[in-house]
């Protein structure tokens, strides 16, 4: 675990998370890509000195991937705990990143762990496991992400203490970028101004907003002497769009800023 | 011979007086998509579109040669109003295309910063100052453009004192924006300042002089290629024709000598198909339209164009009142629209037309692969359960491959919990031709049938409706297939009977469709809009009002958990559709004849992942 995690507290997220920990409540973090959800969870895990099991959810993530499965070894079959089961058994934070990406039947496996029961039934071994007192479930997703098939079921959502994250305020974001990338505050501020303009296009001309993470990448490149135009093109524009027209227009925007 | 000499003379004269660098000309249409995005990014109202500006009269002090050539009287100047940003259709101000392109971008940035010009001289300077101080790159760009522009300004040596003072003030304001507060007065306008926006004409407002495809003025059967009349909007004003004359309106005898000065013809009632109208309209600065639109001829044409509603369809009930979004007030106005559900109850059942059989077969085959229920996969490298058979098989082999461990059973759930409401635009613009013998409406009709064949195969529940409108009081909402109703020859019969007519009040149709979809039990509800153009109607729905209302209706649909998706054959769709449906919420089909083939594919892409 990285003991040097930097996280700038913006609202009351630290306080709310602490209260949730105290009452052993599961936490849901909503927010656009790259706004600092994962970093916050890492930071909290360090503060609480608990192990963190992060699972990046995807299309094919099954309940078995979370709970565990039988494997075949030299002496026959044996049971292997999944990250969720391990966190529940040994104590720790299980963080399911972008849970909306996981298959719906998978998220149902979380239900008994996320309510007052704090248990999980492992059908294949016949074991009903009661979670360790230090176990905590944290999930996150990006609400602007639209997919017809996917979506978090209301019955799943309503088991969590939910927090909405957004991109930080301009001055806070600039100081985060300056800290993370090592560039001066003025250049960081210019990157944030560019991001503010690009974010106006979110959900209209762009699917996703430009993340703080991408701005940090651009900042790092600027720091090492890469020209601003190139840094923004490769760290901000290209990751955002494949459309030649959009790309051209955004490049013009970069030219306006730098 | 005379004509030949005339042409040479004209060419020579034009070359003598022109101040444009025509070889370096840049067209708005080529940059439109980029500029629209740039405008939105810089904070311009996202509901506005970019349009070519009309030529406006400017009182310049002209040289003798310019007088002889009749040039330098009208310029397409950049300005904007609530509906759109008007930019010159092409720019040839500078000698290089790069600078002309740069000028377009600068003007768009100005438009985003300066939505309204009340004091032309002061506001433009303030906007330029604000832009250059907060955008270092724009500052450089501005300085370069100003330097180039200064070299092109007319000389100030031998012009009247008042005009000279004015010219110098403008030059200084360009170089050091924000320094001067007032523009010296002069009898003449100064030469167009290409870096500034011009005010919206206070007493004039813009109305379309020619519809681009869906007005009642459109003759039935008119080809789409012939509908490309005036691409740019004209300055226009409405006047009250108190005399209620049938032919000439308020007319001044001395203006009869020249139509370029004043032409008071009541075009509303003119049924003559004079080919020169377009040319004349192009040349006129200001078009005056009578408010007396109760013209009988227009009304008669209206009914002739359209199938009489009471003859072909059964009205279902007294109508449904629906709200409409007023973007200026920022609120919904309740019960503004009256929507009339209609049913073609006497439609003869028809079987699938022969020309669609092959496409339908293909689509059915594709759709058959979707939604097969649970699938159990054996011998997987990963899965929920052990595949003991696979394990025993592997272990019973004399030579075992220890690297491969495909001993798992995986179960994939592919059950579809879907419903879809297809909403087809049946406005008069669908009467346009996409090929010599095929109209947009034919393509839409075929597409609906083919898609319905596919949907029938997937067992996704679906409904098909069509819509058109005449103002807010008559939004026609035509039922072709309801949810729960089996897809049958009767439904095909109703689809086969759809006819184009009226306008496109999209918001009301979307709201009603959302209401229907909301009652569906499925987890995933799709509203698939098949359209051929922008929202538009006879009243204020034309332009930004319609776009904002449609956007609001789509937002409301999303809030109900419905996924709206638009498939359009409008090539200009890229300008306004991102604002309505979002980046991933629409598809533009560039070849409309392919729609029957493409629509099912789009549906599959949207509904499977």
From TrEMBL, chain A:
It comes from the Bacteria. Residues 173-257 form the CbbQ/NirQ/NorQ C-terminal domain. InterPro entries: ATPase_dyneun-rel_AAA (IPR011704), CbbQ/NirQ/NorQ/GpvN (IPR050764), CbbQ_C (IPR013615), P-loop_NTPase (IPR027417). Pfam families: AAA_5, CbbQ_C. Residues 26-160 form the ATPase dynein-related AAA domain. GO terms for molecular function: ATP binding; ATP hydrolysis activity. Keywords: ATP-binding, Nucleotide-binding. Belongs to the CbbQ/NirQ/NorQ/GpvN family. This is CbbQ/NirQ/NorQ C-terminal/AAA domain protein.
UniProtKB/TrEMBL annotation, chain B:
It comes from the Bacteria. InterPro entries: NorD/CobT, VWF_A, vWFA_dom_sf. SUPFAM superfamilies: vWA-like. Gene3D superfamilies: von Willebrand factor, type A domain. Residues 417-602 form the VWFA domain. This is Nitric oxide reductase activation protein. It comes from Marinobacter subterrani. The lineage of its organism: Bacteria, Pseudomonadati, Pseudomonadota, Gammaproteobacteria, Pseudomonadales.
